[in-house]
Design goal:
The protein is mainly alpha-helical and 417 residues long. The protein is built from 14 helices and three strands.
Length: 417
Amino acid sequence: MIRIITMVVKLMHYLLATIFLRFSSRFIWLHNDDYVATFQKYFGVMLRFVPENEEDDAQEENAANHDGRNLVEIRNKWALYLFRFGTALGGEMAFILFFTFLYWNVDEAVGRHVVLVWGICMYFGQALKDMIRWPRPTSPPVAKLDDNWVLEFGMPSTHAIVGSAVPAAVIYFTDSIYQNYFGIGVLIGVAICTLVCLSRLYLGMHSILDILGGLLIFTSFFPVATFLINQYESEFFACEWGWLVALFVGIELCLGYPSQDHWNPTRADTFGVVGCFIGLLVADWLNHQESSPSLNELVFLEETCREQCVWRSISDIILLAVIRQAVGIAVLLLTKKIAKKVGRVVASYLAMIVPMCMINESGNGRVTPGVGTELFTMFYTYAMVSFIAGYATPLLFEELGIGKDTSILNIVLPYFY
């Protein structure tokens, strides 16, 4: 049964890649390195050839780095800082800070929904990368200013996916709560998406077609993700074996991930993404089982919390949010460190019991499908981190007397309206 489901998942990946490639082939002229180089030059990134006999002290003082024999000159430092910040918005630390802030200080349901949308869009985006296998822009003519993710393929851009999916999910799931701020949310979302997408062009990591491909993945899977959440979330929480269903889905998504010809970090990162939203699902399922008030009770509790928070100043609310964030992040970093060590030990024992779970690399460099020590560790580590974030950390906040009375936005936003 598991093997059949895994084959279905792989077939779905193949069909998606086929459709995606046929659509992208009509715009293949946008997969041109010269366009990326022109964009870089517009913002002051220059790439010039350096002869081998040229002395180091004769190089330009404003050189940013060396790309082989090519000297990269940055003539606009502010553009470099801006676009590095933009690409950092799509990194792991930005996700940890933003998702936990949503969950601990705004609304647990909104935080969970945003993580689910992010996870679904990222999963299919990463899978398409390993199936399409289009290279990143070459240097020259492009100046590569980012060493992260350089071993991954370029199409589609997952930065473009998350740069559009996360703001859109926040706007969509908070619209019913903060209707007066929809226009402001759209403007901020468009600005963030634009900055993240353009930063990948500036750093020389993606072509224009890669960026458009990422936006296409977002527009294709965002409706699917929101439909699944709206349609099946209540049934999932009402299911007695919901946690087992979540784990089964997570394992199947990992087993059905496309195989790789050569190692790159995309597959391991995807296992971490799946672990994140599966761990949070299990945590929220457990929270629901332990305390499941009716809708009327939830409304009454929210109104009571708002009345109790009237006496607090905005500085008190912000201070509590900062304390929760600091304590929670410290707990998660410790959890990640411990879970990574435990995951490696567990994976080594599983490898002895079930040898087929190991990844074997043959003489021709082909990586055979399997879970593997690294992949299991990634899944286990981030599943534990998200589970602790969703279940144990809020309990710790209550014990320390810094629990969330109401959403911080209920207190802060009226000051700006």
